[in-house]
Design goal:
Elements lengths: L6 H4 L23 H4 L3 E7 L2 E8 L21 E8 L3 E8 L3 H21 L4 H4 L12 H4 L5 H14 L7 H16 L13 E2 L3 E6 L5 E11 L5 E11 L1 E4 L2 E4 L5 E11 H39 L3
Antiparallel strand pairs: 1-2, 2-3, 3-4, 5-7, 6-7, 7-8, 8-11, 9-10
Helix pairs in contact: 3-8, 6-7
Amino acid sequence: MYSNQSPQTAYQQFYNNMPSYPQGNQQPPDKQPMVEKYPLQIWVAARAGISLTCAADLNVPEEGDTKNSPMEMHSGYSVFRMAIASSEKGSVVANIPANDIPYLLNQYQFQRNILNRQAMSKPNTPAYTVPIKERNCKNRTAAEVVQMENGLNILTNARKLFAANLGRYPKNRQMVEAIDEALYLYQSHHLSQTINLPPLYSSPVKPKSTADKNNRRTAYSISISGSSSLSVDWTFEIFNCKAFLRDMGKLKTVDVEHAEDKRTLTFKVTQQEMDLFIYRLQSTLENFERMNFSGQYKIAKKHVKYSREVPV
């Protein structure tokens, strides 16, 4: 899971207990058709050396399912598999349950409208348009950084750094001007406030069902959040680790504090890429449920008839 491999190779980790690249006399991976390499993939966003992918691994409840009725349409293993694969940093994976998708879709439309209105209403001046390329500023604009916790000190220190190197890096002047404007607007109480929205989607750290020989489990979490700094964009963050489960009465939680092999990767997508992602989630889910509805309804009706015939 954590080896430094290409995004194409790392993506195969989507398919737990599934064959990865074909065997025998079939073609090598780089010449395989997409239907063989990534049969369940519904969406991908790629940059140089890194990719974010989504695959649909949807499953209906089987007749012997003790937790889900046939008409619920999805078993507990019905998920969308997300992965960020980097040629330099390896890969991380996470699942979004099919039953979480309706909530995610509703939240997306709500947040998308807010972020787009916010982006359109911002002044077109350096404080709001120039990204500050300093580690603590995280490529945000000066107007955003100054509203962060300890943002005033972060911006002041960044300005000192940029101003001291104007001779070597002339482009620093643009960031100095942006910082000066943001500091003035902040101190004069004329700064346009940014609405900080909660994550669009966020999951707790969840363990996978299988454990290794040391009884550790691979665990994961995923969050998706929106921003309107320069334009509206969305950030996916996936965390993976290997950890023991900790007993909390009737519940078992992941012991993240003592986990090993911790890894977090992030991937930022544009509004256009995000719209396609949301569309693929919705259309895939709806088509899956339509395709399986008749069969699941027949199963349900069969058991309704059986329960009526069997005396209580």
